[in-house]
Amino acid sequence: MIDFEIPADVAELRDRVREFVDTEIVPYEKDSRVTAHGPTDELRRELIAKAKAAGLLSVQQRPEGMSHLEQAVIFEAAGWSTLGPVAMNCAAPDEGNMFLLSKVADADQAAEYLEPVVAGTARSVFAMTEPDGAGSDPSQLSTTAVRDGGTFVINGRKWLITGAVGADTWIIMADVPGEGATLFLCHGNTPGIVIERVMNTMDRNYVEGHCVVRFEDLTLPESSVLGSVGQAFRYAQLRLAPARLTHCMRWLGAASRAQSIAIEHAKTRTSFGKPIGRHQGVGFLLAENEIALQQCRLMIWWACWHLDKGGKARHESSMVKAMVSEELFKVADRCVQVLGGIGISDETPVAAIFTDMRAFRLYDGPTEVHKYAISRQLLRDASE
Predict the structure, then answer these.
(1) Alpha helix (H) residue ranges in 54-151
(2) pLDDT value of position 136
(3) Cα 154 to the chain's mean position, in Å?
(4) pTM of the shown model
(5) CA of 368: how far to CAs of 300, 302, 321, 322, 375, in Å?
(6) What are phi and psi of 44, to 5 degrees?
(7) Could you check whether the bond before residue 93 is cis, i.e. omega within 30 degrees of 0?
(8) Which of 1, 147, 306, 354: disulfide with 311, CB 3.0–4.6 Å?
């Protein structure tokens, strides 16, 4: 029998997370350290300390483990504020990198590169996207890692590298000629990593924003290879399906926050003799939002169920990412409409949620790429 009841211990943790975010983190949303390029690392460290004191730091990395379905419940609660995942150390790219490193890194690599990220004392980056094409289509990778005796010499250029400024754990994708795309680990202060600039983007929810990065004869030892040479695409796929879903979980929380603000406004703002929520035009917008939020929640849970059964969930996660990113953007847009003039101001967090939600439609693959992947799978299934 299908059961949608949330286990008592998970519900208790969800409520703790929601209360923590609401009381401890939401007040920071207008902090001057939330800049046009996202929260500063100084602010992140302050928020991390609060989560640690509350016993809510990196909950997804607890020794007893956490299923994907449990993460869906907890990450939605964390996403009530876009600073919530930052505080709890379950924001991108660190959350996805922690997942990847926990699956692929050897013991020495885990101690050096994973454990500081889990502890919140270091941040990480996943350097794959390139200005000349490698991104949604990583086969266009142009950054190279050439063997030179017992080392690899990496040259190339990346952009939209989230959180590069000040990050210590770097995961770099580069092509080893004749052997294929490979992942490498190094520290952010390694000679040969050049951060050209921080890009100006419309979103502002990721620590230190997105950067253009250049590798100039970055020389790394054999021990820096994450996993095996030539297996980067396989490892990236291992990371991508869960990461797509955790994006959806966190943004579901943000959209739910926007909906709650819109409902409260619709109850108290009056026009033509009654609260605007009692006018059918506004009431229907709120109803459409509630339907969409629950659809998104159930889609996320469904894909998590596939992962928890041991499936790769590539097809399922593409369906969820495509549907959820589009629907939550519509939810945020309708909330702006309900709020009217203040919806485009910083009087509430709804305008910021709306702007960031637009970028969410591109994170971990734009909707069109996911639809392309879904259609290919459908045609393959039909030919069998």
Answers:
(1) 68-78, 84-88, 94-104, 107-109, 115-119
(2) 78
(3) 27
(4) 0.96
(5) 19, 21, 11, 8, 10
(6) -55, -45
(7) yes
(8) 306
